[in-house]
Design a protein that fits this description.
Low-confidence stretches: 129-134, 283-294
CATH superfamily of the largest domain: ACT domain
Shape: elongated
Helix content: 55-70%
Order of helices and strands: HHEHEEHHHEEEHHEH
Largest sheet: 7 strands, antiparallel
Number of strands: 7
Number of domains: 2
CATH topology of the largest domain: Alpha-Beta Plaits
Mean pLDDT: 76
C-alpha cells in the first residue's frame, strides 16, 4: 500500500512538473506574440504618420497653389461668359432684325418673280400687236428683265449669307451654353464646399440664390426688386444663369459673393423678426405710446435692407406662385400663404440640388416640417397695406 501511495505521489509530481512546463511555454509563446503584434502596430503607426504628413503637405500645396489659381480662372471665365452672353444677346437682336429683313426679301422675291412673269406676258403681247416698235420695246424689256434677274441673284446671295450667319450664331450659342454649364458646375461645387466648411484660406464666401415665379408678367418686377435686395444686403452677383422658355416661367440661378452664410443667417433672422412684429406695432393706438410726443412705433424709420426685403416679399405676395432664395433665406409664395425660413448649412446642403426649391407647394410643405423658430408666416403681414 505504501508503495502505491509513493508511486501516486511520484505520478502527481511528474504531472505537476509537466503542467508547469506547459504553462511556461504557453506564457512564453503568448509574450512573443504580443511583442510581434506591438512591433507590427508600431510599423503601421509609422506608416500612417508618414501618409498623414504627406496628405497634409499635399493639402497645403493644393490650398496654396491650386485653389487661388482656380479662383482666378473662375473669375476670368465669369468675365468671358458675361461678355459672350452680351455678344449673344446682341447677336440674337441682330438675328431677329435680319429675320424680319429676310421675310421682307422673301416677299420682294415673290413680287419680283410675279413682275417678271407679267413683263414676259407684256413682251409677248407687244411683239404681237406692234412689230414695228419691236427693237426699242425689246431693248427696254430685256433691260428690265436683266435688272430683275440681278435683283433675284442678290436676293439669293443675301439668303445664303443669312443662313451662314444663323449657323454661326447657333455654334456660338452652343459654346456659350457649354461655358455656362462648366462655370455653373464649378461654382455649385464651391457653394457645397463652403456649406461644408471647407472654404480655402483667403477664398471669398459664396452662396446660392434662386428666383422663380409662375406668372411671367411679374418676372421683370421680381428680378428688379430681387437685385435691389441683393445690393442692400451687401451681395454681388458672381454668375447668373437661366433655364426655361422666354415667354414662360424661367428658373434663375445666382451665385452670390460678399457675405458668408453665417452672417446672412443672423441678418435675415433679425429682419424677419422685425417684419413679423409689424402687425403688432400697427395694432397699437396712439394712446398706447407711453412717452408723450414720441412717434408711433409703426412710423419708425425703416433701414434700407429691411425696406428692400419687404419690397421683395410684397412683390412675391402679388403673384400666384413664386420662390426666392438668398443664401440661407428661402421665401415661398403659394396660392394661400407666404412663408419665409432661415435654413442651417446642413439644410442648405441637403436642398442644394433639390427640385423642391422650384416648386412653391412642395417647398412650403418642407418649410412646415422645420423647427418653429426657423419659419415665419407672413401672409397676414403681406395682406396689409404698406402704410399699415
Amino acid at each position: 500500500m505504501t508503495v502505491v501511495l509513493v508511486l501516486l505521489c511520484v505520478v502527481v509530481g511528474i504531472l505537476e512538473l509537466y503542467a508547469g512546463k506547459q504553462s511556461k511555454d504557453q506564457a512564453r509563446a503568448f509574450t512573443q506574440r504580443i511583442e510581434e503584434l506591438r512591433e507590427q502596430v508600431s510599423k503601421q503607426n509609422g506608416v500612417l504618420v508618414t501618409v498623414g504628413e504627406q496628405l497634409t503637405a499635399e493639402l497645403s500645396r493644393v490650398k496654396r497653389d491650386v485653389l487661388p489659381g482656380l479662383d482666378d480662372r473662375l473669375r476670368r471665365n465669369s468675365g468671358q461668359i458675361e461678355e459672350l452672353g452680351r455678344l449673344l444677346r446682341q447677336a440674337d437682336d441682330y438675328i431677329k432684325a435680319q429675320a424680319s429683313r429676310l421675310q421682307e426679301l422673301e416677299q420682294q422675291r415673290v413680287t419680283l418673280a410675279a413682275l417678271r412673269r407679267k413683263l414676259t406676258d407684256i413682251e409677248s403681247t407687244v411683239r404681237t400687236v406692234a412689230p414695228q416698235a419691236e427693237p426699242a420695246a425689246g431693248r427696254r424689256l430685256e433691260s428690265a428683265l436683266g435688272r430683275l434677274a440681278e435683283l433675284e441673284r442678290n436676293g439669293t446671295e443675301i439668303l445664303q449669307l443669312q443662313r451662314d450667319l444663323t449657323r454661326t450664331l447657333e455654334d456660338v450659342e452652343d459654346v456659350v451654353s457649354e461655358l455656362l454649364r462648366y462655370a455653373g458646375g464649378e461654382l455649385e461645387e464651391a457653394v457645397r464646399s463652403s456649406l461644408r466648411g471647407e472654404r480655402g484660406e483667403g477664398e471669398p464666401p459664396l452662396v446660392s440664390g434662386r428666383l422663380w415665379t409662375r406668372d411671367p408678367r411679374l418676372q421683370d418686377v421680381l428680378e428688379e426688386v430681387y437685385g435691389h435686395c441683393l445690393e442692400q444686403i451687401g451681395l454681388q452677383v458672381r454668375l447668373r444663369t437661366g433655364e426655361g422658355d422666354a415667354d414662360g416661367p424661367r428658373r434663375h440661378r445666382f451665385f452670390l459673393t460678399g457675405r458668408p452664410a453665417e452672417s446672412l443667417a443672423g441678418a435675415f433672422t433679425e429682419l424677419l423678426i422685425t417684419t413679423g412684429n409689424d402687425l403688432s406695432r400697427a395694432a397699437l393706438l396712439p394712446t398706447d405710446v407711453r412717452v408723450a410726443g414720441a412717434p408711433h412705433p409703426a412710423e419708425r424709420p425703416v433701414p434700407p435692407d429691411e425696406a428692400a426685403l419687404k419690397a421683395l416679399l410684397r412683390a412675391m405676395y402679388d403673384s400666384d406662385g413664386a420662390t426666392a432664395q438668398i443664401g440661407p433665406l428661402l421665401a415661398v409664395r403659394t396660392r394661400q400663404e407666404l412663408l419665409c425660413a432661415v435654413l442651417t448649412p446642413a439644410q442648405l446642403l441637403e436642398l442644394e440640388n433639390d427640385e423642391v426649391l422650384w416648386d412653391p407647394s412642395a417647398a412650403a410643405l418642407r418649410l412646415r416640417q422645420m423647427a418653429a423658430h426657423q419659419v415665419w408666416e407672413l401672409t397676414d403681414w403681406a395682406s396689409q397695406l404698406p402704410s399699415a
